[in-house]
Design brief:
heterodimer; A: 149 residues; alpha+beta; Heat Shock Protein 90; 3 helices; B: 113 residues; alpha/beta; Transcription Regulator spoIIAA; globular
Amino acid sequence: MQPAPEPHGRSDGLHLVFLASPLAVRDNLAQMLAAPPLRDLSPDGRGTAELVLAEVLNNIGEHAYPDGPGPVWVTLTAVADGTQCLVVDQGIAMPHERLPVGQLPSTDTALEDLPEGGFGWHLIHSLTNDLTYLRTGGCNRLSFLLPQA
Amino acid sequence: MQLQTQTRPKVISVTVIEDRIDAATAIQFKEKMRDVTKNGPDRVVLDLARVQFLDSSGLGAIVAVKKLLGPDRVLELAGLTPTVEKVFRLTRMDSIFTIHPSVDVAVSHAASA
């Protein structure tokens, strides 16, 4: 494994590194919620944080590392207007090295055509501010603010 | 993934005895739901009162169960906790399901229908 990308150049906040498999994502979400800064949010704020981070991390597991779990670095920092989050991985870049738009799939369809996926990026866009994606040095860097509830 | 079912004359209710339906359990949930709803009444009420967390994979699995039941049977939902309700609302999937406050309310609806 290569050395960890330097997330912020500062050491405050919560830092976690793990392999992005569905079960590891679940375990690490539990750890994140049990520690500051997420521990100190309202129940609603914690629910939103868990949902957004689950979507981001499971996307990485599924799309950035399709051949098996790879490492992901998470940094969560309390800021004046919420929680600043940075998630870094060394997997495959986003399509066209751009942030997916998060267009909600249509529900105005026949039963058999109802969407079973395509919700994740819409949820991420809906629940975050300042969502930014950067492909640099072989890494995907996704940063966003979870606004104060 | 533990599911508890109760079959009544015209409705089967399925209670999820887990606190989450997520990427790690969505496929298992879908398969167990297919098993427990096989050959039952046309109306299926899914009780989510114990589920504190649902992600897009879990949502996709619930939609998949609705599709598996086919056009002649119906999947209704009951007991959505706040984060679960938020996922349905933000994705507008609340528009494709009848959602009841609790499984008891859902079942009493059946009795009066």
